[in-house]
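chain below, 259 aa
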Amino acid sequence: SSTTKTSGSSANSFVPFDSEPKAATGGRRRVRQTERLEQEKRQNQAVTGIVKELEKELNDGKNNLQNILSVIQKLLQQQQQSNNNNNLKSLTAGTPSSSSSSLSYRLAWVGSDEAICHIGTSQHKVPLARMQEVFLLLQGRNRLEVYEVISLLGPFPNIRNTLQGSCQTVNNKSGGGVWKITYDSMIDGTGKELLAGKEENVRWVDLQVCCADSNAIVAVVPNEDGSLRSNPLEDNGKHALVFVREDDLDTKLDKLRVL
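prediction:
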């Protein structure tokens, strides 16, 4: 662009004629920010609507697998234009000031018992025990907790196992994103810490995240060789876990009569 040469002590400095005023730059930045916020609002409304549709499908008592998978597919399609890696990094890297402000999710649907065991303790498989609920808490600073609520046959309160650890999102060899979770502590229903953070007791869990949103997370157990599944819902969704936002976790735990 054209430039003008100034006189005096500034003789060697050049100022472009077409330098853009700061006010104009700031105005464009505000426009982009407004557009981004509007896009996020539309995305939030769309995901919220699909989550409500999923919960309605799960609660109607029919347990129609194909209908359930169809709604989950809508979630995945809604996220196709989003960067799930960046979304997940944003969700996990937040810095809540207390546990009450953590992002909490409830496992609303899972395709198989193997998928539950992939992220949990498998203690619900012992005789007379049954998994009641699984909760995922994103606590900020890339820390998380997983609560397993397990019921025991008889007049006993439910017990809660608490898995604690860190997480990060990395790219695997095929270029896709993998959520790598490292459990460094597990506290059982009696309060006994089973993993004390020793290296030999640390457990690693990989998940392929196909939808990452403040209202829902859809994760998939990767292939045995660590590669990502081209179809997250293959084998009738056997490898998928669907978490939905839980806004009142404490009340939920009270109703479950958790120790």
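DSSP finds six helices and eleven strands in the chain. Confidence is low (pLDDT under 50) at residues 1-10, 96-100.
thats it, cya
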